[in-house]
Amino acid sequence: MELSIKSEKKTEFIDITSRINELIQKNKIKEGISILFVPHTTAAVTVNEGFDSNVLKDIEKKLNELIPENPNFLHSEGNSDAHIKSSIIGASETILIKENQLLLGQWQKIFFCEFDGPRKRKIIIKLIKEKE
Predict the structure, then answer these.
(1) Domain limits at 66?
(2) DSSP conformational letter for 70
(3) What's the confidence (pLDDT) of residue 71?
(4) Where in 1-132 does DSSP place strands (E)?
(5) How far apart are the first and last CA of the chain?
(6) 118: domain CATH number?
(7) Which of 123, 97, 129, 109 is nearest to 37 (CA)?
(8) What pLDDT sits at residue 131?
(9) pLDDT in tens, 59-109
(10) Number of domains present in the structure of the chain
(11) Residue 82 backbone phi and psi in degrees, to 5
(12) Mean pLDDT, residues 8-15
């Protein structure tokens, strides 16, 4: 399964939690595992707080402080900062499914992380149903 994602900014955290929950319900997965994979070298996926948007702003700010855009990077495309940020955050997440939805903490959401947008992207999703 794939979800298409369209980012609007260079750096953006896009909440995809409800879209994945819809896939779980559509596929009637009561209990199981979801595996999320981003097949892009300048994007990532993470689980973090979705209640206070300032958390994501703080993450973006700190990542930009640690890894600023830098014309002295060797990569010819000029987006090495996005590659590094993607490597730090990571290309995959595994999340349990319980009672037809993602098993997340009270404040947790799943975010597609764009570091080289705006772009059209995708995330690959594997849903594994627990044997009943």
Answers:
(1) 2-129
(2) -
(3) 67
(4) 2-6, 12-15, 31-37, 43-49, 92-98, 101-102, 108-114, 120-129
(5) 22
(6) 2.60.120.460
(7) 123
(8) 79
(9) 999 999 999 887 677 677 778 899 999 999 999 999 999 999 999 999 999
(10) 1
(11) -65, -40
(12) 97
